[in-house]
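queue> holo job accepted (uridine 5'-triphosphate)
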Amino acid sequence: MSAPVRKAVIPAAGLGTRFLPFSKAVPKEMLPVVDRPVIQYVVEEAVSAGIEDILIITSRHKKVMEDHFDRHTELEAALEGKGKTAESDIVRDLANLADIHFVRQGEALGLGHAIGTARNHIGDEPFVVLLGDDIMTAPVLKGMVDTYANHGSSTVALMEVPMENISSYGCAAAQAIEGEDRVVKVTELVEKPSMEEAPSNLAVMGRYLFTPAIFEEIANTKPGVGGEIQITDAMASLMTKQDMLGFTFSEGRYDTGKKSDYLRAMIDFTLAREDLGPEFRELLVETVKREGLV
Ligand code: UTP
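queue> job finished
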């Protein structure tokens, strides 16, 4: 039986250049999807996969994320004074979602570097990584944690993408494992390959589970694509020493750091809301008719 996975790392210290000008002064991880910031969905996903301890990698420009998961006693008291206890509970509960910690990445040197800043906090345990701008509605993280309980290996979430898009992602070649449906053995990893060089159309998607051995590989990783310390390169190096598995899925992922995917998240999440969905559906139908979209 493998050690239980108790800790998560959520890197959220990037510059968010794809979401300018919004992301100049406000972290893109604080973009609202309906009425919750993206990072809250990510934290809630970790909690629902059984994670108790969460480390958010932040930066000096992103302090507002810490406030979101802290108490706000004046607001709670004001809401209670007005008899708004449900709202007051919502505000207070955010501070009790999990044991949430923060560490700063002094410079945005890449995802691998961001994860490396978690080394002391994680210690000698397996842990999961959830990208702070990626929302997943599919139970991928829980599936990865269960996979680790059976196999004891690092695991990465993988989804097929159209071949013409593969150069935006980390790319994996993989082999089937007998008796497994969604779990595969990763045989090669390349960061943002050209279409011609890509070994497959399987893309790495925002969720990782690592044994603590990844930290030594990160420490030895030199800057790669884009001059950043790439987690894909550290994983490729880890794969020469330990098995790396892939957990495949096909839908339910939103890269909210990309404007078009953020808008898709806003539409899907609003439609799914009991209080807002019906009215929003009518609005969409009206818009589609008015604009002659179908
Ligand atoms: P992204 O590549 O999506 O974030 O990294 P970015 O670099 O902020 O985005 P663009 O490309 O400039 O728009 C995925 C996650 O990793 C974090 C980001 O904050 C994001 O949540 N990240 C990225 C870090 O924490 N540190 C880094 O150095 C880079």
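queue> The pocket of uridine 5'-triphosphate is lined by residues 11-19, 29, 57, 105, 108-111, 113-114, 131-133, 257 (CB under 6 Å).
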